[in-house]
Amino acid sequence: NVNKLMNRFTLYLFGFLLLAQANALACNFKIANFGSPKENIKLDNNLPEPLLMPDRFGGENLVIPIEQICKSNELYGTQLIYLYIDNKLSRIQLYRPIMPDRNLMDFAMKKYGSFNLPKGLPKEKWRGNHVWDLNLELVEYIVTDIHDGHVEIIDIVNKLYLPTIENYNEKVGEWLDSGQ
Prior knowledge:
The protein is α+β, with helices and mostly antiparallel strands. It is built from 3 helices and 7 strands. It has helices spanning 2-25, 103-112, 162-178, and strands at residues 51-54, 59-65, 79-85, 88-97, 128-133, 137-146, 149-158. The radius of gyration is 20 Å and the shape is globular. The N and C termini lie far apart (79 Å).
């Protein structure tokens, strides 16, 4: 009876350690709630301050290297970009340019669900997007060509802030169309 109890205890302990390890490896990049002000971001005091970049469209981008938030080596080189409009978190992006892998795609598929790529096309050659319509959020994975290669992006918007983001994107589009 004692052996049975010891075996059960060992099994529970092993399960707990395995679960704790999986949580430690997971990347929880949402360190603020949608609608919260940028002043709510609290990082380790030993880390450099995040870069805050105001733009001409009424937004402020808070840029944080993902390594400051997540311990996973697979996402190194990814920038976490929090867009604040009227000092409210309105969009979260993970931005991964010019890397020789599709680690952000793999991360998105594990976190939000897989999607089919064209048969016979290696994922490294695929360009396009996929949208997950979650309860309160729209999550879009994008991979597209840029000047020196390609970029992977995960774009997350809370549905309550869709009108704000659409208005912001319209301002950006008008500026791009003007050629200024």
